[in-house]
Amino acid sequence: MISINDRDFVKLTQFMKDNYGINLTRKRTLIEGRLSNIILEKGFKSFTEYLDYVFNDKTGDEMVVLINRLTTNHTYFMREAKHFDFMRDTVLPYLSESVKDHDLRIWSAGCSTGEEPYTLEMILHDFFDLDSIPWDTQILATDISNRALNIARRGIYSEEAIKDVPAVWKLNYFEKVDEKNYRVCEKIRKDVIFREFNLMTKEFPFKKKFHVIFCRNVMIYFDQPTKEELINRFYEFTEPGGYLFIGHSESVNREASKYKYVMPAVYRKVL
């Protein structure tokens, strides 16, 4: 296992704290354990070489890989819960009236290990459960990391990861695997479509636009031109009246985007 020197350790842990709110100052061994293999795979001999490579990667791809390696155990259901409240109380009532063909198109971009799209799917099931006309509530969930997607597809999470899930959801949407783990039930899992996808792809392959796009805590790892280019592509693939949700530590340059600010970390493509 490769050791990390004090300078690189401070640099990395400060970055994680400032940009992602995660305190790894007591996780030196965890950092070394999770990143040593990829350092060797990339042909580097030290953390210094690897971190210089990551922080100088203009595409943001290598930062995504690093973040996935370090944050797998720090993701959880109901993260930034006000977004989900707004989705339930404002966005879905609007969409239920405006989407005449009942074909909802929602994209969780940078879905990591699946907590976000599964949470959204549970909200959809709750909201449309009593509707007499069936709705297509499948969610597209994409990530660049196959490792994260494999975890997401399994749908098995620790008791700690679901600690903020409402009790009624634990009853209706989870199955207990053992004393410490729960699995998202089949009716939720089958409605979340996981795919590997690089957000830096120049031409998005989607045939239809989305009513809602969630891309939270991903763009903070991109430089400003890359971020603005991605947001403009999101806008192109958002239905008029549709919404973009980003992380609370992120922002949209309103002078460079046509999205209109709605509330912190929520933007809309005006009709």
Describe the overall structure.
InterPro entries: Bact_Chemotaxis_MeTrfase, Chemotaxis_MeTrfase_CheR, CheR_C, CheR_MeTrfase, CheR_N, CheR_N_sf, SAM-dependent_MTases_sf. By secondary structure, the protein is of the alpha/beta class. The chain has two domains: 6-56, no CATH class; 81-268, Vaccinia Virus protein VP39 (Rossmann fold, 3-Layer(aba) Sandwich), CATH 3.40.50. The protein has helices spanning 6-20, 28-41, 47-55, 61-71, 81-98, 115-128, 146-154, 167-173, 186-189, 224-236; strands spanning 106-109, 139-143, 156-158, 174-176, 181-184, 192-196, 210-215, 238-246, 260-263, 266-268. Helix 5 packs across helix 6 (115-128). It starts with 5 loop residues before the first helix and ends with a strand. The model has no long low-confidence stretch (mean pLDDT 90).
Q: Which structural class best describes the helix and strand composition?
A: alpha/beta
Largest sheet: 7 strands, mixed
Helix content: 40-55%
In terms of quaternary structure, what is this? Answer: single chain
CATH topology of the largest domain: Rossmann fold
Number of helices: 10
Number of domains: 2
SSE sequence, one letter per element: HHHHHEHEHEHEEHEEHEEE
Q: What's the short story on this structure?
A:
With 271 residues, the chain is an alpha/beta fold. The protein has helices at residues 6-20, 28-41, 47-55, 61-71, 81-98, 115-128, 146-154, 167-173, 186-189, 224-236, and strands at residues 106-109, 139-143, 156-158, 174-176, 181-184, 192-196, 210-215, 238-246, 260-263, 266-268.
